[in-house]
């Protein structure tokens, strides 16, 4: 839950995507036995719902569930950025520097 809270404060992923992925698990935790975990999960859920609601009203009048559902659907069918990469051409890579000394550059003793 700390990682989820940290992601909420960062700009690494959109809040809609984070909410779409974590909503089910947070809901299960918040409905569990009363305690610190359930309270924290409930707080995170409420924050996400408020953020999604304010985000959806500023862009379009869709309800919270609809805007987060569309993010979840988009996330499920999105390309995997780690495995679907296009390799660089040889020209785009940096060339290593030749670190061997040339005879004219050798230190004189």
UniProtKB/TrEMBL annotation:
From the UniProt record, list the coiled-coil ranges.
none
Organism name: Micrurus spixii
**Gene Ontology cellular component?**
trans-Golgi network membrane
Every AP-4 complex accessory subunit Tepsin VHS/ENTH-like domain range: 1-48
Q: What is this protein called?
A: AP-4 complex accessory subunit Tepsin VHS/ENTH-like domain-containing protein
Checking PANTHER family in the record gives: AP-4 COMPLEX ACCESSORY SUBUNIT TEPSIN
């Amino acid at each position: 839950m700390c990682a989820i809270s940290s992601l909420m404060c960062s700009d690494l992923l959109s809040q809609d995507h984070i909410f779409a992925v974590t909503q089910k698990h947070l809901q299960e935790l918040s409905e569990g036995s009363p305690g610190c975990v359930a309270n924290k999960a409930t707080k995170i859920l409420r924050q996400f719902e408020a953020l999604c609601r304010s985000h959806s009203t500023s862009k379009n009048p869709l309800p919270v569930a609809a805007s987060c559902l569309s993010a979840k659907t988009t996330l499920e069918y999105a390309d995997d950025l780690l495995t679907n990469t296009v390799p660089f051409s040889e020209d785009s890579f940096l060339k290593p520097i030749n670190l061997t000394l040339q005879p004219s550059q050798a230190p004189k003793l």
